[in-house]
Amino acid sequence: MTKKIISIDQGTTSSRAVLFDDKFQLIDFVQKEFSQSFPFEGAVEHDPSEIWSSVFGVTKELIKNNSITPNDVASIGITNQRETTVIWDRKTGKPIYPAIVWQDRRTSKFCEDLKKEERLEVEIQEKTGLLIDPYFSATKISWILDNVEGARKRAQLGQLAFGTIDSFLIWHLTEGKHHKTDATNASRTMLFDIKEQTWDRELLKLLDIPETILPEVCDCIHEFGNTSLFGGNISIGGVAGDQQAALVGQCCFNAGQAKSTYGTGCFLIVNTGKEKLTSNNRLLSTIAYRVNGKTTYGLEGSIFVAGSAVQWMRDNLKFFKSAKETEEIVQKRHNESKVLMVPAFTGMGAPHWDPNARGSIFGLSRDTSVADITAATLESIAFQTRDLIEAMKKDGAILKDLRVDGGMVTNEWFSQQLANTLNLSVFRPKISETTALGAAYLASVQAGMNPNIDSLTESWVYEKSFLPEQETVNSLDRKYKVWSDAVARTKGLFNP
E strands within 99-159? Predict the structure, then answer.
């Protein structure tokens, strides 16, 4: 029997275990949702024990459902929600506080105070590639150490461990034998120098975070330990944060290749090769992957609202019952509709970074229809993507094309609008589970199933391409300029 790969895909709302064969064809998956809590304004938390239970449960069920044994599994790959922060007791493995999720904004004031220190944000950006923001792990760690009684002293004594979700899972899968992370997850903490590839002691001192709580930072392809929890030993051979895993899953191994994932939000990463680009347009420099000690960098931009805008139309406005209906609905829009949507429901992400912006609709008339607003909403997500790409170009990144994934790109009208708005060829892959696939790719190399990641390029197959249609490109270019003006009018409108 040929060996198989299991990918553990631990996301923000659910945990999945995905089974691939030796040709990376998806065999099966098991998924389980878990709860989120919102204990006070701006706070988003998970129960780490529930996360671990869900991961263990779906993996065990996947193995059982497919009648396989640990001997049939070459390796496990892990991919995870990034930035989410857990601190646990080294002896018991029990968390000392709920996981503070990447969406959490409780440290906003702390971050604003840090920004007041002269040149600090510039220094942090130069070292970590990131901006000072509650989004990242560093200030979340400080908050837990400050707000859990005795935590800081216990951390200093080496009794506690910090990790992003990958580290927490590795710890439990290996029964406390390994406290490790990979370079991509480390690069999202705001504590890791992505050029020197080390935890930065100056930043640790600034935030009063003991180095003793931090995990060992490894390559994405590495022996992270073995798990014997499923009836025999299985190696954990690959780890990457979810967006970087999707980049690997889309085989974006050359500089200029980019992927964009359209889920609740949108995350676009372009491979910048061996060069770390420091953005002058408020994008994030990050580690795309690190293999054999060699780092490949990426430039990343995020859109806060993408698929969630479709959910808003479905759940709040009752425009339709299923997101799938949007493809048919937009065909009924008025050809001359001037409706524009700025979907800033939770502020605007890169390159604007305006937390106070709010959603706005422009260009309404008496004959404005559901179809017009639906089309404008989908177009706004394409326009936001263009914002990111324009910023990337200004920073020196040249995109060759765009590989897309996520639920939204099953809408062919949207995918075509994306190609026309960006004036780029857009490719939708045959295997849509690109995040899990990326983790499987990494694990397969560690297991010796493939000699290196470059050899995986031939396994990537696109299902459909969307090529720019010049006439529409020109009309959307004009519309994008008007939309940009609408964004400018929206920003600052609701400042406190």
Answer: 99-100
The predicted structure's pLDDT at residue 1: 58
CA dist., res. 153 & res. 143, Å (int)? 14
Q: What is d(CA 304, CA 3) in angstroms, rounded to the nearest whole number?
A: 39
Cα angle value 158/162/167 (rounded, 5°): 125
Please spell the DSSP secondary structure of 205-238, one letter per residue.
HHTT--GGGSPEEE-SBS---EE-TTSS-EEEEE
Distances (CA, A) of 362 to 163, 310, 365, 484: 44, 18, 9, 12
Residue 335 covered by a domain: no
Residue length of the chain? 496
Number of neighbours of residue 121 by Cβ within 10 angstroms: 17
Distances (CA, A) of 131 to 280, 349, 378: 11, 12, 28
Buried b (16+ CB within 10 A) or exposed e, 69-82: ebebbbbbbbbbbb
For the chain of 496 residues, list the mean pLDDT of each consecutive stretch of 10: 90 91 92 89 90 96 94 95 94 95 86 90 93 91 95 93 97 96 97 96 95 96 95 95 95 93 88 90 93 95 85 89 89 90 81 79 92 94 94 89 90 94 94 91 93 86 92 91 91 68
Closest CA to 40 of 91, 90, 100: 100
Number of domains in the chain: 1
The predicted pLDDT at position 198 comes to: 96
- 177: amino acid identity, one letter: K
Is 267 inside a domain boundary? no
229 within some domain: yes
- Beta strand ranges found along 62-201 (DSSP E): 73-80, 86-89, 99-100, 160-163, 180-182, 192-193, 198-199
For residue 40, the enclosing domain spans 4-242
CATH of the domain at 159: 3.30.420.40
- Identify the burial level of 460 via C-beta atoms within 10 angstroms of its C-beta, where 0-12 means exposed, 13-18 middle and 19 or more buried: buried
Asked whether residue 337 is domain-assigned, the answer is no
Q: Which two tokens stand for residue 285?
A: 């420099």
Contacts of the segment 275-278: beta carbons below 8 A, 24+ positions apart: 276/129, 276/194, 276/195, 277/395, 277/396, 277/397, 278/125, 278/126, 278/129, 278/395
> Cα separation of 425 and 41, whole Å?
42
pTM, whole model, 2 decimals?
0.90
The first and second tokens of residue 37, run together, are 């809590």
- Count CA atoms within 13 Å of residue 351 on its CB side: 20
